[in-house]
Amino acid sequence: MADAPTQRCNPVLALCTALALAAAWALPFVRVAPNRLLSGEPVYLADVLQSPRAWLAVALMVVVLFATLQAQRRTAHALVLTAMAAALAGLWLLAGAHAQLVAHTESPLHRTALGAGFWTLASLAWLAALDAVTRLRLGALARLAVLTATALPLLAVLATTGVGQELSIAKEYANHSDVFGAAVLRHLQIVLLSTVPAVGIGVPLAWAMARTPWLRQALFPVLNVIQTIPSIALFGLLMAPLAWAAANAPLLGQMGISGVGLAPAVLALLLYALLPIVRSTLAGLEQVPVAATTAARAMGMAPWQVLWQVELPLALPVLLIGLRTAVVQTTGLAAVTALVGAGGLGQIMFDGLFSAANELVMLGVLPIVLLAVLADALFKALTALLEAPAA
């Protein structure tokens, strides 16, 4: 008689649980300071769990431990997702409740900043949710929908309750609410102005390289070298030529091109985006069946028609991989463009760095991370949809 299969625990979830227990014990959950410039005194999770919300946190931990033992069942993975969604909202509620307590008992001027323990626990909860979604083996759109639903409890808490308004990061948002929306739009503008022209340049360039071997050998080293140049150095290299061009061509100056601002930022990010776009487009074009292009030419199609109607549709799934890399990379690098006066979320981040306000730094960093994650998830879903009919 064959032995019954051994029920194994989920090692990823077990590791996340162990790390969460260590973080809850060793890392400060929040920090309380008399003003925004001081690091403050650490307050650990054990000190925060003084309200009925503590029972919710304990219950969630029990659910996670149970799901760890039963991690091979789909119901257990769904249970993990539910627990992690509640954990993300619960962590914010606990931190917000303690901030309200500090404001009422100490002083409204006191700042309660989210500590390393909070960020570690939140990150581990999200990693556990990602692992559960992976083990559920869902389709691309279903995976994206489930992950969005995982964040809904936290979003509901932020939108419908006043808990957390006394936290330092919420106060920083209130102080910068008049520029926050404009900074997000500016950040998106920088990303679009960099990646859209990069696609317009990179795709024809890859098409030419696919037909001209010497062009590939000449340009790939140049694109590789550009990737090795630090972003700050590349901004500096572009500032002088652009300033000279604007001074000697009044039309360029009227268009807003100068040595600082949007022009050097967009041009530098465009150069960075070319390599992943060109490489992926070239790889996609090389895997197009020769029979398809031969048949298109036999039908009398011009070269540009063959590219637009035959080669690009067949190469699109591979092209999107490079475009995804370029968009995510550009979303992160766009933060640095604030150093040359381009603005965006990087401006908020650097304002926090220059004033030693950690929560202001996080106010600029978190939206950038969120935008990069959303872009990555959307491109993954789009790639899966394009590949689905061929599966």
Describe this structure in words.
With 391 residues, the protein is mostly helical. The protein contains 16 helices and three strands. A three-stranded antiparallel sheet has the order 2-1-3. The protein is flat. It starts with 10 loop residues before the first helix and ends with a helix.
- What is the string of SSEs from the N terminus onward? HEEHHHEHHHHHHHHHHHH
Spans where pLDDT lies below 50 across 5 or more residues: 1-5
Q: How confident overall, as mean pLDDT?
A: 83
Shape: flat
Largest sheet features: 3 strands, antiparallel
Q: Find the count of extended strands (DSSP E, 2+ residues).
A: 3
Number of helical runs? 16
Strand line-up in the sheet with most strands: 2-1-3
How far is it from the N-terminal to the C-terminal residue, by CA?
Answer: 38 Å
Strand residues, percent: under 5%
- Quaternary status: single chain
The proportion of residues forming helix, as a percent range, comes to over 70%
Radius of gyration: 26 Å
Structural class label = mainly alpha
